[in-house]
């Protein structure tokens, strides 16, 4: 009976040890399964990142391989051609402006100088060319101060003075006011209007 009890004890111990070992083995298997699952999820995330990077690299390659004509930048030759064209247009504009001024001046002479709307300022006074603000190197010695108003042009100012009996031309006004740009008169600026009739 001792032998049976001993065998029974050994069998019970072996079964308990085997069960304990099975539980420990099962825990290790569960732990390893969790780690494998985490690694698979990490690998899937990295695969997505690699795909996005590959797509980005492909887009950059496509941009680099585009022909130069698709670029929006201009070459130095393009800029030189554009500058030449702008200068030519400006020359034509100035020639047209001079032609318009001459035509208006001729029309003013034909119509007898009856221009309405532009009058000299009420405080216009006779001045001499010794006034530092209105040098007249080649023009008459006497004339009038005029303050430029909105909408004024040199030819319109000349017509207004013609209407008042002062027979001055646009050319004489420009000559009496060095630095005056007929294309961009500054409102409020005083200019000198020479009087060709004054001695």
What does this structure look like?
The chain has a domain of 82 residues: LysM domain (Membrane-bound Lytic Murein Transglycosylase D, Chain A, Roll), CATH 3.10.350.10. Helices cover 58% and strands 7% of the residues. The chain has four helices and three strands, in the order ααββααβ. The chain is mainly alpha-helical and 199 residues long. The longest helix has 63 residues.
Arrangement of strands in the largest sheet: 1-2-3
How many helices in DSSP terms?
Answer: 4
Overall pLDDT metric:
78
CATH topology of the domain at 113-194: Membrane-bound Lytic Murein Transglycosylase D, Chain A
* Global geometry: rod-shaped
Which CATH architecture of the domain at 113-194?
Roll
What gap, in angstroms, lies between the N and C termini? 161 Å
Q: How do the helices and strands follow one another from N- to C-terminus?
A: HHEEHHE
Strand tally, please?
3
Question: What percent of the residues sit in helical stretches (DSSP H or I)?
Answer: 55-70%
Decide which structural class fits the backbone: mainly alpha
Please state the CA-atom Rg, rounded to the nearest Å. Answer: 49 Å
Under CATH, the homologous superfamily of the domain at 113-194 reads LysM domain
Strand content: 5-15%
Identify low-pLDDT runs: 113-140
- Let me know the largest β-sheet: 3 strands, antiparallel
Name of the CATH first level of the domain at 113-194: Alpha Beta
């Amino acid at each position: 009976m001792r032998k049976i009890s001993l065998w029974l004890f050994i069998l019970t111990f072996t079964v308990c040890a085997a069960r304990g070992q099975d539980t420990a083995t099962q825990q290790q298997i569960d732990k390893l399964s969790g780690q494998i699952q985490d690694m698979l999820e990490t690998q899937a995330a990295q695969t997505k990142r690699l795909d996005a990077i590959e797509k980005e690299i492909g887009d950059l390659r496509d941009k680099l391989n585009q022909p130069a004509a698709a670029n929006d930048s201009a070459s130095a030759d393009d800029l030189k051609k554009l500058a030449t064209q702008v200068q030519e247009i400006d020359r034509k504009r100035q020639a047209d402006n001079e032609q318009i001024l001459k035509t208006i001046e001729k029309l003013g002479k034909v119509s007898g100088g009856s221009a309405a709307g532009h009058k000299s300022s009420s405080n216009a006074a006779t001045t001499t060319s010794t006034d530092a603000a209105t040098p007249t190197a080649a023009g008459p010695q006497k004339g009038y101060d005029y303050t430029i108003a909105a909408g004024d042009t040199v030819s319109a100012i000349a017509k207004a003075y013609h209407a008042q009996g002062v027979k001055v031309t646009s050319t004489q006004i420009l000559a009496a006011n060095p630095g005056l740009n007929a294309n961009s008169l500054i409102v409020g600026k005083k200019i000198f209007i020479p009087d060709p009739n004054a001695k």
